[in-house]
């Protein structure tokens, strides 16, 4: 029987994914290395106004915000997060403490609003998506990027499937994450009246020592104590997954990085 501590706090900021965790910066760096190439490709295809005002919502460790400041040197790039400890000393950006679930911006404040690996973890994701569209000026862009773990549920490998399902369950139970929500992003933008909606995906594999593999391994390792505490996995399960990833004959799709964008009327 799975037991939990009823006194545990619920939500991202009190979870094993929160910024105060000792390994969080290193984990975020693995996410950046895996996701940045897709994010760069998406922004490179957007037609932006001169001197755009860009909001990077939930900027994390700031690699994309810093890149945006270099890519658009005449832009105003505002990087926000509920915890901005990793956003210091990044040239070319303005930093603001901001809770996407409760804080807003005036209508038509930005030419681009971007969020990455954020909304899937917030129970208010649909409301935030609706509000974020209003923060974009007419003709501007809403760019939402997130992670889908659907590929991990398709595996026939029993060890990988057990660990993947346990990770998804942990995210649901402790944070309220929906790790399949990213698959709906293009339709979500269309439903809010955006046009010129497009999307791109990037497959992330484990067992190949690539960027996505490093991100998956770092996140699973950081989740280990919580998985054991909630009896979702045993130490033998975690050890078996480490051995599986180290097997030269093993590699499988584990996640999909999804980017979706649309223009505001």
Automatic annotation (TrEMBL):
Its name, as the record gives it, is Class I SAM-dependent methyltransferase
Q: Gene3D superfamilies of this UniProt entry? A: Vaccinia Virus protein VP39 (3.40.50.150)
Domain Methyltransferase type, which positions?
A: 55-144
Entry-linked SUPFAM superfamilies: S-adenosyl-L-methionine-dependent methyltransferases (SSF53335)
Q: Does the entry feature the keyword Ligase, yes or no?
A: no
> Any idea which GO molecular function terms this record carries?
S-adenosylmethionine-dependent methyltransferase activity
* Keyword tags: Methyltransferase, Transferase
- UniProt-listed InterPro entries: Methyltransf_11, SAM-dependent_MTases_sf
Lineage start: Bacteria, Pseudomonadati, Pseudomonadota, Gammaproteobacteria, Pseudomonadales
* A Pfam family of this chain: Methyltransf_11
**A GO biological-process term:** methylation
């Amino acid at each position: 029987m799975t037991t939990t501590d009823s006194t545990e706090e619920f939500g991202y900021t009190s979870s094993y994914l929160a910024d105060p965790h000792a390994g969080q910066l290193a984990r975020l760096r693995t996410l950046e290395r895996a996701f940045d190439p897709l994010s760069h490709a998406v922004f490179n295809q957007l037609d932006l106004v001169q001197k755009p005002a860009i909001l990077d919502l939930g900027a994390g460790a700031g690699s994309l915000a810093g890149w945006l400041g270099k890519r658009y040197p005449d832009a105003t790039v505002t990087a926000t997060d509920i915890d901005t400890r990793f956003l210091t000393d990044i040239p070319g950006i303005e930093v603001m403490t901001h809770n996407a679930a409760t804080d807003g911006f005036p209508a038509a404040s930005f030419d681009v609003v971007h969020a990455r690996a954020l909304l899937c973890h917030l129970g208010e994701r649909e409301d935030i998506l609706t509000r974020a569209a209003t923060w974009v000026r007419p003709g501007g862009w809403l760019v939402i990027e997130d992670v889908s773990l659907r590929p991990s549920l398709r595996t026939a490998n029993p060890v990988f499937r057990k660990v993947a399902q346990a990770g998804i369950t942990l995210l649901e139970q402790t944070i309220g994450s929906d790790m399949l929500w990213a698959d709906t992003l293009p339709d979500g933008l269309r439903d809010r009246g955006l046009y010129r909606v497009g999307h791109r995906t990037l497959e992330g594999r484990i067992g190949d020592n690539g960027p996505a593999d490093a991100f998956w391994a770092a996140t699973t390792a950081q989740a280990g104590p919580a998985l054991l505490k909630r009896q979702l996995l045993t130490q033998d399960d975690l050890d078996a997954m480490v051995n599986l990833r180290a097997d030269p004959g093993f590699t499988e799709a584990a996640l999909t990085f999804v980017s979706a964008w649309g223009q505001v009327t």
